[in-house]
Amino acid sequence: MKETDREAVATAVQRVAGMLQRPDQLDKVEQYRRREARKKASVEARLKAAIQSQLDGVRTGLSQLHNALNDVKDIQQSLADVSKDWRQSINTIESLKDVKDAVVQHSQLAAAVENLKNIFSVPEIVRETQDLIEQGALLQAHRKLMDLECSRDGLMYEQYRMDSGNTRDMTLIHGYFGSTQGLSDELAKQLWMVLQRSLVTVRRDPTLLVSVVRIIEREEKIDRRILDRKKQTGFVPPGRPKNWKEKMFTILERTVTTRIEGTQADTRESDKMWLVRHLEIIRKYVLDDLIVAKNLMVQCFPPHYEIFKNLLNMYHQALSTRMQELASEDLEANEIVSLLTWVLNTYTSTEMMRNVELAPEVDVGTLEPLLSPHVVSELLDTYMSTLTSNIIAWLRKALETDKKDWVKETEPEADQDGYYQTTLPAIVFQMFEQNLQVAAQISEDLKTKVLVLCLQQMNSFLSRYKDEAQLYKEEHLRNRQHPHCYVQYMIAIINNCQTFKESIVSLKRKYLKNEVEEGVSLSQPSMDGILDAIAKEGCGGLLEEVFLDLEQHLNELMTKKWLLGSNAVDIICVTVEDYFNDFAKIKKPYKKRMTAEAHRRVVVEYLRAVMQKRISFRSPEERKEGAEKMVREAEQLRFLFRKLASGFGEDVDGYCDTIVAVAEVIKLTDPSLLYLEVSTLVSKYPDIRDDHIGALLAVRGDASRDMKQTIMETLEQGPAQASPSYVPLFKDIVVPSLNVAKLLK
């Protein structure tokens, strides 16, 4: 207490010190004293009230404990009295056993009397129930069946209570009501028939379906009541539980499966489109059935049956099973496409599960895939393998068909611009287009794979096309009279190359979003190279045809006959122009190259004639006459090829300038200036060799030995550097049986 008092005093001193820190606060000492007195009185009052409350609670508790003790004593006394009475009444209870048996027998007899009317009328009720079932009055029939079962079950339960081991009486009762189970089975059969046609019944006679559901609900309640009683007594009547609700869903599931399987009306042998037809029938049936279930059947079933949800799951599972069965068959490529398109796209589209009439009950996102990813992958692999074989076969057949056209006696068709062409590019790319459109229906990934496959096979096909075009050219060169329209069909082959290139670019632009995808972008340069090679060989073959006809006239150049007035160049120009009238049917890119190549080759052949020293001029007059003739003929050729190249925007003068430059060397009258003229020629045409200069000097016929030696030594110092745009003309010209040593002599 002393310690507490000291703490209280210290606290008080601290508080007073806090209140009286300034002199002006001394005036408020009385006010502070009154306030503290009020606080003290309030605290003391609360303490007194709390202590009083605690005392009252203790007093009440003591009182209740005292009463409880008295109650315990009274109960103890009562139990002693009961125990005493029980010991005295044991003998009396044993003497009442006969009374107990009589009571049980009385209870059974009372139940028998109660059901006596039903017992005697069992045969009549059975007949009435049978008639009602046959008449379709299912609710009334079920009511009578319930009465029969109630009477039977009541009697059997009483017998079970009296003597559960007495099987003879149980069998007797069961036999007397034997027709009851038959009626139950017959009624069930009628119910299942209605359920099997439920989608039709709900539209024609929904009342009948409602009656069936009510009967099933009644039986479910009876099953639950009997199972509850079984827990108490162990007694279960025969035929229970019926589980008609479970059987109802089993029947519906079997009906759905049968409906899906029964939609296949055709086979591959009878109709190539059997699968498309089968899938379309399934789509229509399932959609119609689910719409009916959503709008009508849900009104005929209790909400806790969740009939639409269950039917949706049944249809989904039945469809999945059917799709698995179809996938396991040996399907053709187009059938695989039809199946995958239906499974991956149609099923989840607005044509089926996303149909507005099924929303919002059907959530496509919650549905499992009809086919597992593994099965889909296997189908795609099979499709790609089959498609590869088909494309190879189609391309081979298309090429064989095109080859047959090459030997026809009639000219090939022309496009709207008048260019010759065959049907090969259209056939090939129509086939590619069809397969890509089909693949696009399934997935973007498959579309890309098919495009890669088409381009890969196109690459191989073009190699075969190139070989066949080469064989075509070689066979013609062995017999130039056959085929009759060789030139026209070779032009068509060349034009096809351009069509192929344009079609490939168009195909990739249309079906490829990202053009740098692996395996696709790399294929274009390769195919362009092959197509350019085919076109180049084709153009070369046509030019070979031209130069075979020109050979005789080219051999006349730079001969005595030529100098005396040959019209070989006139014939050459007419022949080339005549051929190029046919070559006008070649598309511009290749015609442009072909014109340039023809120009180059004509000039090269002219220069070759010069270098073959067919003539050696013996006088300045002959040299002048020959050189002027060369210049005139160069202008003739220049005019021709300007005409042929009109519209190309090409400079066609360069080649003919070479003939003029050579003519200037021949025409030169002052031999002392020959070195300068030849040096100028060599600087302009870096590919000219010493044997060419030697041949040219031999044609002049007046170069001295020293001049020849000087010119040759100058050439040996190294050729001039050619410009990047220079096209060599002399490198392919061979000077026959001519060497520098012989010239120097």
Q: What is this entry, summarized?
A:
With 745 residues, the chain is mainly alpha-helical. It is built from 28 helices and no strands.
Describe this protein with a few key phrases.
4 domains; single chain; 745 residues; mainly alpha
Write the layout of secondary structure elements.
Blueprint: H1 2-19, H2 29-94, H3 97-114, H4 116-120, H5 122-135, H6 138-162, H7 167-176, H8 178-196, H9 198-204, H10 206-233, H11 244-261, H12 274-295, H13 307-328, H14 333-346, H15 373-406, H16 424-442, H17 444-478, H18 486-511, H19 523-554, H20 560-563, H21 568-583, H22 588-611, H23 620-644, H24 653-667, H25 674-684, H26 690-700, H27 705-716, H28 740-744
Largest sheet: none
The ordered H/E elements are: HHHHHHHHHHHHHHHHHHHHHHHHHHHH
Strand segment count: 0
Supply the number of helical segments.
28
Mean pLDDT: 82
Q: Which parts are unreliable, with pLDDT below 50 for 5 consecutive residues or more?
A: 738-745
Q: Class by helix and strand content?
A: mainly alpha
Cα-to-Cα separation, first versus last residue:
155 Å
Radius of gyration of CA atoms, rounded to a whole number: 57 Å
Shape: elongated
Q: Kindly give the count of domains.
A: 4
Which range does the strand content fall in? under 5%
Helix proportion of residues, in percent? over 70%
Report on the structure:
The termini are far apart. This protein has 28 helices and no strands. It has 745 residues and is mainly α. Helix 14 (333-346) crosses helix 15, helix 14 runs parallel beside helix 16 (424-442) and helix 19 (523-554) packs antiparallel against helix 21 (568-583). It has four domains: 32-242, no CATH class; 247-371, no CATH class; 410-524, no CATH class; 545-732, Orthogonal Bundle (Tetracycline Repressor, domain 2). Helix content is 74%, strand content 0%. It is elongated and about 175 Å long.
